[in-house]
Amino acid sequence: MKVILAGAGAFGQKHLDAIREIGGIEVVGVVGRELESTRAVAQKYGIANATTELSEALKIPGVQAAILATPTQMHAAQSIECLRAGVHVQVEIPLADSWADAQAVMAAQQETGLVAMVGHTRRFNPSHQYVHKKIAGGELKLQQMNVQTYFFRRTNMNALGQARSWTDHLLWHHAAHTVDLFQYQTGEKVVTANAVQGPVHPQLGIAMDMSIQMKSASGAICTLSLSFNNEGPLGTFFRYICDNGTYIARYDDLVNGKEEPIDVTKVDVSMNGIELQDREFFKAIAEGREPNSSVGKVLPCYEVLGQLEEQLKHN
Questions:
Q1: Based on the domain organization, do 253 and 142 belong to the same domain?
Q2: Is residue 50 helix, strand or coil?
Q3: How many angstroms separate the most distant Cα atoms in the chain?
Q4: CATH of the domain at 75
Q5: How confident is the model at residue 251 (pLDDT cuts 50, 70, 90)?
Q6: Number of domains observed in the structure of the chain
Q7: Distances in Å between the alpha carbon of 232 and those of 108, 167, 172, 235, 261?
Q8: Residue 200: which domain range?
Q9: Tens of pLDDT along 15-43?
Q10: Is 51:24 a contact under the CB 8 Å cutoff?
Q11: pTM of the entire structure?
Q12: Shared domain check, 83 and 170
């Protein structure tokens, strides 16, 4: 399968590393903001074509699929561009930064019938898969999720310590992980959602602290705290409080409520969530089916985010 990657930064390279572990996939083009650095990434990974234009990469002969790890503000338009070019697409989280744009991508997917998937990695992390399988099997019922998403990002830097060309967002990016995961783990839509945020950063133009509360149809609740002001520890930490046990997920590490480790190494074929989501993308294309974390399956998350954004405008 011939694939192109748009977004040659820190997260794009995570996808390129993951694809190296998956057989039958050839990355034939990479797209980046600056040609010189994009060519350097192409050389590093043995990719024949480097360009600054997605439209050029989509014209490479035989391209079947695209992975987008570009700035958030480009996700919706680029996803639609790929679909209308007849190319299956996986776009990194978030699908969009507005409810209207998320719906537009959904419409394009329905028009084309192609695979359109969003990088909601938490659905694929073995730690969360372990809990999901127990819930799906009837062993657990989720009563409460308590989630902390904490970073120290008072300047606009990426994961490699390089200056970003775009601004990250607590609501549309980082909250999207948890809003989707809460609905995925409960198997229900959010029926109540509330949010408050702290002051807006004078240079970055975004709130640096935020708190979100949600309730599912059956009464499960979720409390999410987010910050770009936290000096450590960094990352996202999930506590699942269930009727039959408590589980704490710290990325791919999982412990019970007594801090006793749980082995999740046999949950899937890899411990790398990015690799697992990429495997699902390529497999869904090959099998002609809807993938886990398709645009359709994650769309309810973006409806909630849209509602929360409207709420925050008036708070």
A1: yes
A2: strand
A3: 55
A4: 3.40.50.720
A5: confident
A6: 2
A7: 41, 21, 22, 8, 22
A8: 125-267
A9: 999 999 999 999 999 999 999 999 999 99
A10: no
A11: 0.94
A12: no
